[in-house]
Amino acid sequence: MNTVGQRQASVRVLIAAAIVAAVLTAIAATGHLAPGDRPIANAVQSVPSGEAPEEVADVLAHTVTETLVWVAAAFVAWRRKRTALLIAGVFVAVALTANPLIKELVDRARPAVSDLTIRETDAQEGFPSGHVQGATLIFGFAWYALSSMDIRWRVWASCATAVVLLFIAFDRVYNGAHWPSDVVGGFAYGVLLLTLCIIASQTAMRLGPRARARRRRRVGMSGETTSA
């Protein structure tokens, strides 16, 4: 896909994620549940999963794991001399701070004991899921770094990212820490912020001093050719 095609695809993803995030935020802000929240949560909690999936999800969503994944993705960007990708990684690190602010603004309570089986408690608000939003940003950044390589890496990165996010999303609902719409909201905000980080990094590269110097050289060479 060429640069223009990538830019158009990014804009489409941005719009879709923004719509989903806006709808779920509006519902959560009213204090109501999204359609399907309760039956889906009950179905997830009825799955006889045991402790293994929960332990795997806890490891995947741990700060140390996510830090190592971010560093590995940044290393790939550095080795491949992808400055825009490195800039996107910095933006992703900053975007991780957005979740507490969104939670405070929306102010949606987590599921209560009367709603679901609560296996894990947290004092913070419920929407959007911080675990899912953070994992979407970090593992999504890693996916973006690896997808710039050949098709084998792209397929592997896509499958691995999907499995990681599904594990974490399942864990948050299974433990009664979130409603399904909290989890989907976390994913939507994660995709929205990740896409903004990518677009912002690409824009910074296009408007940076090196890009301007290259454009001036091209214009100068074009003028010399015309005069000759």
The count of β-strands is 0
Q: What's the N-to-C terminus distance?
A: 36 Å
Give the class from helix and strand content and strand pairing.
mainly alpha
Assembly of the depicted chains: single chain
Give the overall shape.
Answer: globular
Query: Percent of residues in helical segments?
Result: over 70%
Low-confidence stretches: none
Percentage of residues in strands: under 5%
Succession of helices and strands: HHHHHHHHHH
Mean pLDDT: 88
What count of helical segments does DSSP give?
A: 10
Number of domains: 1
Radius of gyration: 21 Å
Taking the sheet with the most strands, its summary is:
none
What descriptors fit this protein?
single chain, 228 residues, mainly alpha, 10 helices, 0% strand, globular
Describe the structure.
- By secondary structure, this protein is mainly alpha-helical.
- The chain has one domain (3-30, 52-209).
- Helices cover 76% and strands 0% of the residues.
- The protein is built from 10 helices and no strands.
- The protein has helices at 3-29, 37-45, 52-60, 63-79, 83-95, 98-106, 130-147, 151-174, 180-207, 209-227.
- The longest helix is centred in the C-terminal third of the chain and has 28 residues, at 180-207.
- It is globular, with a radius of gyration of 21 Å.
- The chain starts with a helix and ends with a helix.
- The mean pLDDT is 88.
In short:
The protein is built from ten helices and no strands. By secondary structure, the chain is mainly alpha-helical.
What topology emerges from the helices and strands here?
Blueprint: H1 3-29, H2 37-45, H3 52-60, H4 63-79, H5 83-95, H6 98-106, H7 130-147, H8 151-174, H9 180-207, H10 209-227
Helix pairs in contact: 1-9, 3-8, 4-5, 4-7, 5-7, 5-9, 7-8, 7-9, 8-9
